[in-house]
């Protein structure tokens, strides 16, 4: 049997290493939690639509947490033009969340630019605040989800942009906890939601307030 004091000596000898390892782990954790964002040398060379841009290094960036109208939908042009006004030709600052890419290979980011007075503009938030985007909460990228819902409420109450033409249904709707989409009860997609992901709301407004976004098929 090894005497106890020798055990202690061994532990003491090891402890600086353990301490360093612990410190390194904590540092890594801290670095991960701290949003890494700084003004890059990258510029916006193309504004695809209200929530997608192309950078000077060729990468396509999809804004996190928001969704703007698709081609053919009301406010598609308005959203793209507003986005263009905010970012076209500018240097961008990118902040990332947990997932870096979507399944189309687009870089997912919170995008910041400077306006003519040097003020920092949070582009994703501005799109929502001005009624050109809906919130699109898709876990695990949810860092600013609550802020976006708050801004959407502000836009909706003031009937800004797309909210000026949107008439949410007063009928009960059903949401999908996983995708955060909500549907009319009659929507074929609603019937496919798995029981443990189903959540009922008394109407579309309640679903919007909970951060869910309306289905593009049934438009509740
Ligand atoms: Zn639907």
Automatic annotation (TrEMBL):
One Pfam family in the UniProt entry: SNase
EC number(s) recorded for this UniProt protein: 3.1.31.1
Gene Ontology MF annotations: 3' overhang single-stranded DNA endodeoxyribonuclease activity; DNA binding; methyltransferase activity; zinc ion binding
GO biological process: DNA repair; regulation of DNA-templated transcription
UniProt entry keywords in alphabetical sequence: Activator, Endonuclease, Hydrolase, Nuclease
Residue ranges of every copy of the TNase-like domain listed in the record: 38-165
Nuclease listed as a keyword: yes
Xref: InterPro entries: Ada-like_dom_sf, Ada_DNA_repair_Zn-bd, SNase_OB-fold_sf, Staphylococal_nuclease_OB-fold
PANTHER family cross-referenced by the UniProt entry: EBNA2 BINDING PROTEIN P100, SERINE_THREONINE-PROTEIN KINASE 31
Name of the protein described by the UniProt record: Thermonuclease
Source organism of this protein record: Candidatus Fervidibacter japonicus
UniProt gene name: nucH
